[in-house]
Write a structure and sequence with these properties.
This protein has 149 residues and is mainly alpha-helical. The protein has a single domain, classed as Winged helix-like DNA-binding domain superfamily/Winged helix DNA-binding domain (Arc Repressor Mutant, subunit A), CATH 1.10.10.10. The protein is 68% helix and 8% strand. The chain is built from 6 helices and 3 strands; from the N terminus they run αααβααββα. It has a 3-stranded antiparallel sheet. Helix 2 runs antiparallel to helix 6 and helix 3 crosses helix 5. The longest helix is centred in the C-terminal third of the chain and has 42 residues. It is globular.
Length: 149
């Protein structure tokens, strides 16, 4: 039987609360894509797309940053390439590494995502205030920079 203190903690732990918020926000973003040519892109593929943040990166970096298996990351990238939002090129002088980058069509998807993320951040600011939102951004950035461990 789980102890009361652990039960209480598990109800309000940071990881769980962040997962709840991410699920809500991902659902909002899926809804925002409903009537676009990007409507049927999987949520997991959108996570991979979002992880690029407009950068050109090696496929191996994507799977390491996200904690996906190499195979899962590669499959997501292949689906996004088929949709025309990403392109993959071999790294010059290396027969194994592949560089993933966003296409012009992918930039359209980034614009749509940026609009939706701004709306999500605006709704956060309505609840915690602009200063609270920026404090949260700073704290999350600090956790990411310092490893979040």
């Amino acid at each position: 039987m789980i102890e009361k203190k652990d039960d209480d903690f598990l109800g309000v732990n940071i990881k769980g609360m962040m997962m709840t918020l991410l699920a809500r926000w991902n659902e909002q973003m899926d809804h925002a894509r409903e009537n676009t040519e990007f409507a049927d892109i999987r949520q997991s593929d959108m996570r991979v797309f979002g992880q690029l943040r407009g950068r050109s990166v090696k496929l191996s970096v994507i799977h390491k940053e996200m904690g996906f298996s190499r195979q899962a990351a590669q499959q997501a990238v292949e689906r996004l390439v088929a949709r025309g939002v990403l392109k993959v090129e071999m790294v010059e002088g290396n027969k194994r590494d592949k560089m993933v980058s966003v296409t012009d069509k992918g930039q359209e998807l980034r614009t749509l995502a940026a609009r939706q993320i701004r709306e999500i951040e605006d709704s956060c600011a309505k609840i915690v205030g602009e200063e609270g939102k920026e404090t949260l951004r700073h704290l999350l950035n600090q956790l990411i920079k310092d490893g979040g461990k």
